[in-house]
Amino acid sequence: MTTPAQDAPLVFPSVAFNPSRLLLVCAAITAVAIAAAGFSGHLMVGVFFGVGLLLGLLNALLVRRSVASITAKEHPMKSSMALNSATRLAIITVIGLIIAYIFRPAGLGVVFGLALFQVVLVLSTALPVWKKLRAGDWVEPASEGTERGNTCDE
């Protein structure tokens, strides 16, 4: 028998999240974007693209902080995590859209920077996990009361 989703404990696996590496990647992408935008005569698009990447990095750092604070509680609530995520994403989105509107058309670079950051974030966290899986170094912890290899499809 399986546990219903609403009754399941709130568990977050450790993720290969390295903010320093992400900052360096964002700085390199920003430099390339500014150079490309400068050559095409739209330097500010590249600058706003970098602002979008920076907003994305800020969001990722806030995610890490909120996950740490919520999971440190004795009884973490999924609803508090969902509310925190929705609020944070709404604020970051509104900031990005306000910048894009005020500084249009170059300000649209912020929206594209935010979007690209999500791709960079997923790749920077998924690739190390994928490499571990391919190398066979992945160790799956056995949960309490279950034997390895059992499934809940019965």
UniProtKB/TrEMBL annotation:
One GO term describing the cellular component: plasma membrane
Keyword Protease: no
Localisation per UniProt entry: Cell membrane
Transmembrane segment boundaries: 22-39, 45-64, 85-103, 109-130
InterPro entries: ATP_synth_I
Highest taxon in the source lineage: Bacteria
Membrane topology annotation: Multi-pass membrane protein
Pfam families: ATP-synt_I
Keyword terms: Cell membrane, Membrane, Transmembrane, Transmembrane helix
The protein, known as: ATP synthase I
Lineage: Bacteria, Bacillati, Actinomycetota, Actinomycetes, Mycobacteriales
